[in-house]
Amino acid sequence: MDDRRTAGRRAGDGRAGRDGQPVPPATVGRLPGYLRALEATASDGAVLTSSEELAARAGVTPAQLRKDLSFLGSYGRRGVGYDVGHLREQITVVLGLADVRRVLLVGVGNLGHALANYAGIAERGFVLVGLVDTDPSVVGTTVAGLEVEHADDLRTVVHRTGATIAVLTTPAAVAQRVCDELVAAGVVGILTFAPRALRVPAHVDVRAVDVASELQILAFHDRARSVGGGAS
Ligand SMILES: NC(=O)c1ccc[n+]([C@@H]2O[C@H](COP(=O)([O-])OP(=O)(O)OC[C@H]3O[C@@H](n4cnc5c(N)ncnc54)[C@H](O)[C@@H]3O)[C@@H](O)[C@H]2O)c1
């Protein structure tokens, strides 16, 4: 049986929440939003928050929020609400952010440059530990404080840096080959921007970001509204 799967499969399948119980992928997908909302609440100086307030900040309904948090074993206290610090810690642990994750970026072109310099990566508990490219005019240059290394040394770079997650910003034509090399080197999570599906072994998670597809979905909803189809 083929143990490989495509990027269409969601990361977070069956991940452990309360008492090791699985957290549904849709809930996992909303947890970063809850964490952001909690961080905003904490920076306002609040120690406690209600499901209504937190849901409003996260853009979901209070019922959805309560259901999602119940998978983490967090129910809040009636009349008191949620302890902001405790809930932040719980979500951080479930998302696997309690330990700093080392990230390698492959393909230091336009997008790679922008992402390497994106401060939000470090602010969310990740550390960019390496940059890799094949272009001789890029290799050896310094981007975001790191020297770009040659893709021929990919495996060595992964081992030296201890990267477990890779951001893939190469052209689509080489993305599968680079992905295979990353997996062979021991990377277990890949965030790809290349516009093609990637096949990975079952133990590896792939998340795909595709701005053009998202725009197409918006176009679909726009068209559906204009023809009165009422898509939602
Ligand atoms: N998902 C999105 O929303 C989105 C948005 C923009 C671009 N993209 C995609 O992201 C990728 C990068 O786009 P870009 O505009 O930065 O392109 P770019 O050409 O500026 O950068 C690509 C970089 O990858 C390097 N590269 C090529 N082969 C490599 C290999 N085998 N190993 C390591 N590096 C290699 C190139 O030398 C180059 O520096 C493309 O696949 C593009 O289609 C996706």
From TrEMBL:
Protein name: Redox-sensing transcriptional repressor Rex
Pfam families (UniProt xref): CoA_binding (PF02629), Put_DNA-bind_N (PF06971)
Domain CoA-binding: 97-197
Basic and acidic residues: compositionally biased ranges: 1-18
DNA-binding region coordinates: 33-72
Gene3D superfamilies referenced in this protein's UniProt entry, alphabetically: NAD(P)-binding Rossmann-like Domain (3.40.50.720), Winged helix-like DNA-binding domain superfamily/Winged helix DNA-binding domain (1.10.10.10)
Matching InterPro entries: CoA-bd, NAD(P)-bd_dom_sf, Rex_actinobacterial-type, Rex_DNA-bd_C_dom, Tscrpt_rep_Rex, WH-like_DNA-bd_sf, WH_DNA-bd_sf
